[in-house]
Write a structure and sequence with these properties.
With about 450 residues, the chain is mainly α. The chain has one domain: Up-down Bundle (Amino acid/polyamine transporter I), CATH 1.20.1740. The chain contains 19 helices and 2 strands. The protein has a two-stranded antiparallel ribbon with strand order 1-2. Helix 9 runs parallel beside helix 13 (about 250-275). The chain binds phenylalanine. Phenylalanine (PHE) binds near residues 101 and 232. Phenylalanine binds near residues 23, 27, 28, 101 and 232.
């Protein structure tokens, strides 16, 4: 058996589902629909689609090239590729971004567990809107329960990771991703058959370019990075598990299609329902945890659909936390020579220790601020505005300017076996377009 086969995914569909699982996450289900609604609906959709095609897919291919060429984790990959020392700093930078993202992401992931329990026990039904809002506020402001749920979520993730790439990540993704799609379609049918669904669809899709500001366009660009999990080594790590015979272009395309589809369908689930019951289409965590439970309370068979929805959200979050932790575990197994089990446990505990501060920043330590933000918000800001775009920029500059073009082409065409008609276009994006877009994001983050 060749080395690639024993170490990575066993099939192309496995690779696509695992990486799509990493990409499809909380970002798709509450952030995307809200951004769509507030930034001119269809107008935002068109701009976002353009960014995914023009920059997202090429950048994903770039990360895959780095991972598959080197068969290594994010730090090891740069160590193998660099001609001059120093580029591996990008890898360490990615690990730092991942640690911070995982610390705050796991807080919201933990909330999904609480809401799965609440909806399965029917505890939210019959509550007034105020009571639902209070329940959310007092749960998140607490210490014991949010920490317990966060810990459980981290344990679940570590458990999957400890089974390895094939028996853990690939296997669970092959089960959970189809389940996610089925649950999502079930919710879509429910939502579209509610009276007043049309208004919600209009809110979502009517292209209103007058509502799309410069900030909205930038938001669409940032959203495509976060949603496709780019700029932090996730796709370098998963790229190292993709078989040599698979097409990196097609794999990237399919992952992006899945990611976009889930984001759009999540909007189709949420907004018709919200409008149908005259709720406020507010954004962020409020939308999912406060507005939607009210919607479910008013809906025939709402208890069942609430459970389905939160299960869906939990699955989306779990496949994403798996990809986050795998970046760290692959690094510690390959670079520090720890066993997979030891890596899974130590990284889980470390993330929990840092994550405690994020969880408590909704409650007891909400007054601890860094640059006027709670710790949770600070981690979010630093990663989204600086670490991720800077990491992605360094990646494009390294591969576009400091690594031989023939080698990039060799990897993308599988050693010449595949035709890649778009190669020159891809290479132009890698060297010129993507770096410019990333510099704009970074500068606007600093100025704004
Ligand atoms: N793409 C995920 C989401 O949309 C978030 C994520 C980022 C997951 C980076 C893994 C790595 O929620």
């Amino acid at each position: 058996m060749d080395n690639n086969k024993s170490r990575g995914f066993t099939s192309n569909i496995g690779a696509i589902l695992a990486a799509a699982g990493g990409a499809v996450g909380l970002g798709n289900i509450w952030r995307y629909p809200y951004m769509l609604g507030q930034n001119g609906g269809g107008a935002f959709l068109i701009v976002n689609l353009f960014f995914v095609l023009a920059i997202g897919i090429p950048l994903m291919m770039t990360e895959f090239v780095i991972g598959r060429r080197t068969q290594s984790n994010v730090v090891g990959a740069y160590k193998k590729l660099e001609r001059k020392k120093g580029w591996a700093t990008i890898g360490y930078f990615s690990i730092l971004a991942v640690v911070l993202i995982y610390a705050f992401y796991s807080v919201v992931a933990g909330w999904t567990l609480n809401y799965i329990v609440l909806s399965c026990t029917n505890s939210l039904s019959g509550l007034t809107p105020n009571e639902i809002a209070d329940a959310f506020a007092s749960f998140t402001a607490g210490s014991f329960w949010p920490l317990l749920y966060q810990f459980c979520f981290l344990m679940l993730t570590a458990l999957v990771i400890s089974f390895g790439v094939q028996k853990g990540i690939e296997k669970i993704s092959k089960i959970l991703m189809p389940v996610l799609f089925v649950l999502l379609l079930l919710m879509v049918v429910r939502s579209l058959t509610l009276p007043g669904a049309k208004e919600g669809l209009q809110f979502l899709f009517k292209p209103d370019f007058s509502k799309l500001t410069g900030a909205g366009v930038l938001g669409a660009l940032g959203q495509s990075f976060f949603s496709l999990s780019l700029g932090m080594g996730a796709m370098v790590t998963y790229g190292s598990y993709i078989r040599k015979e698979d097409s990196l272009f097609k794999t990237s395309l399919w992952i992006s299609v899945c990611d976009l589809m889930v984001a759009i369908l999540a909007g189709v689930v949420i907004f018709p329902a919200v409008f149908s019951f005259g709720m406020d289409p507010a954004g962020g965590p409020q939308l999912v945890y406060v507005v939607l439970p009210n919607v479910f309370n008013n809906m025939p068979m709402g208890g069942l659909f609430a459970a389905v929805f939160f299960l869906l959200l939990g699955i989306a979050a779990l496949t994403s936390t798996i990809s986050l932790q795998e970046i760290i575990v692959a690094f510690s197994v390959e670079e520090l020579h720890w066993t997979r089990r030891k890596s899974s446990i130590i990284s889980m505990i470390s993330i929990f220790v840092i994550g405690i501060f994020c969880t408590l920043s909704f409650g007891p330590i909400r007054h601890w601020t860094l640059f006027n933000r709670t710790i949770f918000d600070f981690f979010d800001l630093v990663t989204a505005s600086y670490l991720v775009p800077i990491g992605a920029l360094a990646t494009t500059i390294f591969l576009g300017w400091f690594y031989p073009k023939v080698e990039v082409k060799d990897e993308i065409t599988n050693g010449g076996a595949l035709k890649c008609r778009f190669f020159e276009l891809y290479y132009f994006i890698l060297r010129i377009v993507a770096p410019i877009a990333l510099i704009i994001i970074i500068v606007s983050g600093i100025v704004g």
